[in-house]
Structures are given as structure tokens and as C-alpha cells.
Amino acid sequence: MANQRETNSYTNQVDEFTQALATARKMQEDWLNYGINFIHIYVEDAHGDWLETWGEEEIFTSSVLSKIKEFLISDDIVAIRLRKHLGDDLQSMECHRSLFDIAVNLEECWQYPTDERLTAIKHLLASDKTSEIAILDLANSLVHKLSEIL
Known about the structure:
Number of helices: 7
Structural class: mainly alpha
Oligomer: single chain
Shape: flat
Number of strands: 0
């Protein structure tokens, strides 16, 4: 059973790599067809003020991280389920470090496109001790709860 899980993991990685390679090839083809104007296909606001407002994203990120940290230590049922999944004891100092790590990782996952967040959070929660169904359920709950909070 463990070998089948590893094989599925490798298959998923190969599929993801194949998709990334196809995307890169398409981008290269668009570059050859459209020249420098291909950027407008991939960047929504190519002529906008993104360079001038670059640092403002950091302010948003720190606000998001703060909200995630507050949520993780709250009495919310999803936060409690997550802490139970992580096997942390709130009284220990190690818990605060691992909760901080999970908060940073969740904040990074939240920067992904909306349709990729669930997958990123599932990978973050992956565990040999917990079934894929339980992880998917917890990841779905986290995405829903973080959508409400953020």
C-alpha cells in the first residue's frame, strides 16, 4: 500500500511537471509569434503602476499573516482541528514555533491563484498518519475559513 501511495505521488509529480513544461512551451510559442507584446497575454496590468506599488504588497502580506496567526490560536473549530492534526500542545513552546511555521506556509498558500490554494494546503497538511479524505476535508475547511477571515 505504501508503494502504491509513492507511485501515485510520483505520477502526480510527473503530471505537474508535464503541465508546467507545456505551459512554458506555450509561452515560448507566444513570444515567438507576438514578440514583446506576448506579455499582455500573461500579465494583466503590464503598463500599470506595479513597479511603483511593489512594496505595498508587503503591508498586505503582514496583515494576512497576523490574521492567520490569530486564527490558528483561536477557539475556532477549524483551528482546533488543525492543531489536533498537527499534534501540538498549546502549552509547549514548540507548538508556538510550529504554529508560526504553519501560519507562514498558509500565508504563502494564500498568495496562490484561488483555484490552486486547496491543492497547496493539502500538500501542506499531507501526513502518512492521516487519510487523504481527512486531509482534504481539513484543507477544504481551512480554505473556507480563511476566505471568511481574509
